[in-house]
Amino acid sequence: MRIGELSARTGASRRSLRYYEEQGLLVSSRSPTGQRHYEDEHVQRVRLIQAFLAAGVPSSTIAEMAPCMSEPTEDRARQALKIMGRERDRLSEAIDGLAAARAALDHLIEDNHAYLTRSADDGPCTGVSPE
After folding, report:
1. 3-class DSSP assignment, residue 127
2. Contacts of residue 37, Cβ cutoff 8 Å, sequence gap at least 6
3. Spatial contact of 16 and 10, defined as CB atoms under 8 Å apart
4. Using CB atoms within 10 A as the burial measure, which of 20, 40, 66, 130 is most buried?
C-alpha cells in the first residue's frame, strides 16, 4: 500500500509517517520512482508507535525498542520491558513534580482567598499578604 492508504488506515498523517521513517521507527520499501510502499503489518506497527507516543514515550525511546517490534525475541522483549520501566519511572517523577507545583499554587490561591476575605480593596494585586 502507499503512504496515503496507510495514513487512512491508521489515522496518522502522511507527515507523521515520514517522521516515523526519519526516526527509524518505520521502514518502507521504495518503488523505482521513489514512492513508499508498506505492507499490512505496517498498520499494526504504526498503531503501536501511536500508542507509545500517546503514553508519553519519546520517539527516540521508541526507536530503542524498534528491534523488538520488528523481530520479537524473549531477549528483545526483556530489553523493551526494561526501557518501558525506565519511561514509567520518568513519567512518575514528572507527575510528582507537577503535583508539588500544583500544591504550591493551591497554597498561593488559599493565601489570595484569605487576603480577599480580610481586605476587599487594599494591598497588592497578587493578593499575597506581605506578612
Report:
1. coil
2. 1, 2, 28, 29, 30, 31
3. no
4. 20
Residue pair 86/57 in contact by the 8 Å Cβ criterion: no
DSSP H or E stretch at residue 16: helix 14-22
Q: How confident is the prediction along the chain (131 residues), in pLDDT tens digits per residue?
A: 999 999 999 999 999 999 999 999 999 999 999 899 999 999 999 999 999 999 999 999 999 998 888 888 999 999 999 999 999 999 999 999 999 999 999 999 999 999 999 886 665 565 555 55
CA angle 73, 7, 47 (to 5 degrees): 30
Among the listed residues 40, 29, 35, the one whose alpha carbon sits nearest the alpha carbon of residue 6: 40
pTM listed for this prediction? 0.75
Please report, as a single letter, which amino acid is at residue 38.
Y
